[in-house]
Each structure stands twice: as structure tokens, then as C-alpha cells.
Specification:
Elements lengths: L3 H6 L23 E2 L11 E5 L6 H9 L7 E7 L7 E3 L12 E2 L10 H28 L4 H32 L9 H10 L11 H5 L8 H11 L4 H23 L9 H8 L6 H7 L16 H7 L1 H13 L4 H5 L1 H8 L11
Helix pairs in contact: 3-8, 4-5, 4-8, 7-8
Length: 354
Amino acid sequence: MISLNTLATLVVMVPSWSCNAFSPPKPPTQSLQVRPSTLVESTETMVVLQPPQQLTAEEQLQSYVSQDGIEPSPSQKSYLDDGFVFGLDGSGLDRPKGKGASVVVEGDSLETTPQQIGIVSATFAGHALFGANAIHTLLSQTDVNVELTAATSLATIIASWVAADFGSGVLHWSVDNYGNGRTPVMGNIIAAFQGHHSAPWTITHRGFCNNVWKLCIPFGLPTVAAITLMAGEEHPMVSLFFAVFCAMEIMSQELHKWSHMTKKEVPGWVNRIQDLGISIDRVSHAQHHMAPYAGNYCIVSGLCNDALDKSGFFRWMEHKVYEINGVESNAWKLDSELKARNLRGEYRLPEAIR
């Protein structure tokens, strides 16, 4: 095995191989609508569509989980902001009825391309190589103590999995609430996450590589290589931790996809890992899709959601951002009472919206 530092400095050249989805995408339906997005070019007033007022929160959640689709009715609340796409009326986005698909980012497509397959294949192969070298280095450092190496590696992997859930929540919260399609570097990811609320079933029409490849950019090989170099060979578990962390952040989008699919639409083992809490389940994520989209942001396992929402961590973060630069979160724009409570220092998310 080559050393971690040598591996981190190599230009990883991995041939792309067939990248099959863990769960096959749905075939295109007649409800698929692909139209240019006005996200980047328009700053017109956006009108938010709320779930039908005659439904209780429990009825909205049940309808979402059963995937019957909720046809929202427009409210009169509007925003003069630059790229807020939760508002559908006048935003250039249409919410398909039922489980239709609608591509909201200009230039995006539901078709998996060879480039996406190559990027995803090389990224996961590289992460696996970094992880394997880290374990091999630790084995050498422990004088081939297999039990100690296995226990340390397993503990590192579990810790990384928990951290990845927290990290997915921070990422999800930030792109849901701030920025737009013009934001440097993250613009496409922000537009995709915010637009996801207008057509949540679109993700289920994507193949694996088409679904996750964008996250290979911030969580790809250069990130793991840089961290490995900074940590040095004397700290191989740092390399293993971040190899697993970055791989799980990329996989979070596929775990997210499964939470939007029925039990019959995914393999049986997916239902089992959801039941075990290894992957985000349908009910927990459905709660996120209720306005003002202020909680349940973590999408790896959802393990951190309860603690983060009860503690008001994200509301506290929004208050700090507002104090620094005066920018309101999108959740505040959707719920003036939520904003008022946060400004009073009441950060705990009410049970009705978590």
C-alpha cells in the first residue's frame, strides 16, 4: 500500500465504469416539464404557495407520506427578493400535480451522462482508496494489532456517519435559506435545493449518478487529499474520517431520494435501513416539506434532527446571520411569527412545524 501523503499528492486517474443506481429512477412520465428557469435572470415578486388551509398539519403530513400529492393554493404573501423559488406563482416555476417532475435549474437534465458516471465513479473509488490506505497505515502503527485497528476504524466510521448527518443538515439549512442561482460556486446547488420544494418528486426520476454528481465537487477527491496532507501520516484516522464523511455527504442526496419514494419503489433493503435509522425515513423528511421548511434538515440518517430542532440551533444561527449582515432567512420570510420569536431569543422550534 502506498503512503497517505503519496496518495494525497497523486492525480487520481480512475477509469469510469458502469454506475448503476442503487434504486432505478422512474421512467419519464407525461407530467415531466422542462423549461428554462427564471431564477438567475428575474428579481420579480415571488408569491408563496402554502398547503391548502383546510387541511390540518397531520392531514398534510399524511398526504405527503402517502405521496398522493397536495395541490397548493396561492396566498397573498409576496417577496421582492433575488431568486427565492419557494414561491411558485410568478417565479417561473410550476408545481406539477401528484408526483410529476419539473427541472428548475437552467441546463439541468434528468438524463445520466457519461461525464456524470465518470465523476461519480472516480470520486467513490478515490474515497475508498484513501480509506483503505488510512486503515493500512493504522495497522502498521499498531504493530499489526488487528483488533485495535478494527475497533478504532469502526469507531471512526460511526463518528463520521453521525458527523455527516449533522453536516448534511448544515448544508441543507444554508442552501434552503440563503443565496440563489447567482451565488458563486454554490449557485446551482442552491437553486436545485430551493427548487426541490416546488417539485419534490423530481428527484425520484433521477438515476444515481445524475442525482449525486454535483456534490462530488465540494466533497470530492481534492477535499480529502488536502485534509490528508494537512493531517500527515501520523494521523491516518483523520483521513479515514473525512473520506467517509465526504462519501456520505455525496450519498445523502440518494438517501434523500429514497425518502421521497414509496416502499414498493425501492429495494427491500432500503426499507430496512430506513426502519433501523441508518437512512433518513419518509415521515421525518416529510415534516421538512411543510412550510416554513424550518426543521428536519439532516438527510443522511436524521439522527441529529430532533436535538437540533429542539435546541433551536438553526434559529440561533439565523439570528446571528441577521445581526451580522441584516439578511433574513427564507424561513423567516415565510413565517413572520417565527422571525419575531427568534428576534426575542426564543429559538426552540415549535412542535407544530417540526
